[in-house]
Every structure is written in C-alpha cells, then in structure tokens.
Amino acid sequence: MGMMAAAVVRALGRVECEDAAAPEPTPGRVLVRTKLASICGSDLHIAYQGWSVTSLPLAPGHPGHEGVGEVVDGGGTGFEPGQVVLTVPRIWESAAFAEHQLLRPQNLLALPDTKPLAHLLMAQQLGTVIFGCHRLPPLEGSAVVVLGQGSVGLFHDFALRRLGAERVIAVEPVPERLEAARNMGVDEAIPETGAAATGAVMDLTGGEGAGVVVDAVGSVETLNQAIAMAGKNGRVAAFGLPSSMEPVSFDWAAFFRKSLTMHAVHGAQEAPGLPDFQAAVGLIASGEIDVSPFVTHRFPLSEVGSAFELAESKADGALKVSLSL
User: How far apart are alpha carbons 113 and 268 in whole angstroms?
Assistant: First the structure.
C-alpha cells in the first residue's frame, strides 16, 4: 500500500498535514486523485467544535466533502481514468482533504471542461442549497431572511431570488460578507446581530416578521434568532449544522405561538443521479451564477492548519478557503 498526504484532525482545533496510507483500487468503487477541496462551515463544526466526533484523531481526509478530482481507477463502474469529477460523498464517508479518495460511483458527477476547477468546485455547496430549497413553500410575494452571508448564505440569496422571493434580507456582521450579499442583489443588508438584527427585520416587515428564515450559520443563537424573526405560520430552514451534539434550548413558546414549521437540510447526496448537483454545475457552466467572488483563498495541503484558522476567523474577506492537493 502506498502513502499519500492527508489532513488529519488531531485534536479539536488542531488540523495537521500528515502521511497516511493511500486507498487501493477496489471493484465497485472509484479511486479519485483529489485536485482541489474547500472548507465548509460544517467542517469547522466538526474539527473545531466536535460535532459528531466520538474519538480523535479523525480518519485521514475527514471531514472534507467538497472536492474535485481526477479518476485514477474506475473499479468497473463506468468511470474512466482521467475523467474530472465532482465528489459529493456522504459526510461520514468523506475524505476530500486527502490526496486520494475511494468513493461510491453514485457520489460522483462528471464535470465539463468549460470552467476553472475552482469554480466548478462550488457546485457541491450550491447543489446542497438547491436541494434544501425544495422544502420551502411558494415564495412569490414573500419576505425571506438569510442569517449569515458566508458561501451558504450567498447561494441562498441567489436561489431564493430565482424561486420568486419578493424581498431577500441578508443579516451579516462581517462587512466584506455583507458587501458580497449586496453584490448578489439582496434587497436589504443588515450589519447587526442578536436583538438589533431581529428588530431591524421587524421594522422592515412592518412588525410581521418574515415568511421564511434561513439559518445559514448553525448555532443556538441563530436558531432562536430565526424563530424570533419568523412571522406567523412562517418556516425556519435550519441549514447549518448545530454547534454541539448536546441538546440545545430553543424558544418553544414563540415557535408554538407563531405556528411555525422548521426543517433541517440533509441528504442531497442520496438523491439518485444527483439532480441538484447537476443543476448547480449547469448554472455555473452557463454563467447564470458568477462564483468567481466566492473563490477567495487557496492554500497548499501542507498549510491546512492555516487554512482552517482563516476559515474559522473569517478574516481578510475569506468566503471560500480551498486546499490544493
């Protein structure tokens, strides 16, 4: 068995590049040489906050799940060596922060050669957002709030507008991210957090609250903020991973009084044929969405610790921090 470079979460908040055993070609699985991988907010929740972590260190390459790479061995699946693919593994099988991944063929999507790989890589997260939007009610005439304007929030700004939302209200305290939301065409940009942000949403909606609130952050605070911002009979989409495996407290009284509906977003990788990721690739390839502003920082895998620190701090205008392998 050969060796490869891989990121390893040694302890919470400590991610290092190490040598690890490379996977071997296996019938029925596709061996992929990772070229580029990006750090998702859920990776930070796992590597920094310990979400779903039962022991450390984590497996080499885990929890990276946003990747593009080149097929090395198709394992008899129909994928051929040299094909460039988007890798969308189930989170518990993910290893995109390693030079090689062994993946189920149903978690791979062949990519066109018309856009840079760094742009096509964004199809993983955009596809997950499109998948999540299927759960939303009709949005025509609705005011929609998006909490958090990292890449997930920005992709929601785009997707919600396409679905007919009348007003898209972005909430984000980081100035560079709020400016990115303005560039994405949101109607209102709120640079506040907590009660001030909730008050601003109520002012903008005439005291009624929003028909839909998307929590694109994932925290106890933003969950309760989403409930506070939602209007009567509204819906809360809990897109971000929770920040803890412990049970969390939320405002049940407001949830009940407003007759709210709330749902989590999970399972895009399970859809046969990966239709939402295909749609995302099509939107990027056609130029309907310009993802170039999302691609802000790139590090070699050897500097994975610094890459994670930047993604966690959100400094220097970081939106998507990627790793070259």
Answer: 24
